[in-house]
Amino acid sequence: MGLFDRLNRVVRANLNDMVSKAEDPEKILEQAVLDMQEDLVQLRQAVARAIAEQRQTEQRYTKEQSESVKWEQRAKLALSKGDESLAREALKRKKSYGETATVLKQQLDGQTVTVDTLRKNLIALESKISEAKTKKNMLVARSKAAKANEELQKTIGGIDTGNAMSAFERMEEKVLQQEAKSQALGELGGFGIEQQFAQLESGSDVEDELAMLKASLGGTPEPKAALPSATTPTKTPVSDSAVDAELEDLRKQLDGL
């Protein structure tokens, strides 16, 4: 294979590839329908011309046939009058018209077959065009759906779902931490002086029972010494003596119950 043949093949291959890539189904199908419609217009024009020629031939045939019959009648008339020479001339005319009518009849028969064929082809082409339009619309719709799905797949493929799900997981963990912190703060903030007294009050029955057991054993419970506060000096200030005396009275009242 020569160098030019190889180059020619490469060029044709590249051109075919470019044409194949450039083909848009919607445009190609639309152009195909337009081409078929142009063929339909030309075929209709051909049918119209054929029908017109058929009618002209039919008119000429009818006229020649009529003339042939007329000259035959004239020949009979001349012969009945005894004019054989005139009758012979009339028969010549009748034969000429008859021969022309015969040729026109053959031509008319051929034209009739042609017109019938063209009409059948016209009906078939119209049916094909109608079918082609329906098929074109269907293929165009499928092509658009395929393009839309392709774009959707490209969009989905370009989304980094890993990062998105990781962000959701991080935010979920953060919300859980915030909920736990809020719950803990609620529990700590609710443990105030009311809760402390509630615990003391709930344990008063146990303290009363313990005092009764000590009294039955003959021992008088000694008053408990006040514990020093972690934030105050161990020496009780003089200003707290009234409080201590009131506490001692409360203890005696509790012991006498």
UniProtKB/TrEMBL annotation:
Region of interest called Disordered, as start-end residue ranges on this chain: 214-242
Domain of life: Bacteria
Keywords: Coiled coil
Coiled-coil residue spans: 26-60
Stretches with biased composition (Polar residues): 229-239
Similarity remark: Belongs to the PspA/Vipp/IM30 family.
Protein name, UniProt field: Phage shock protein A
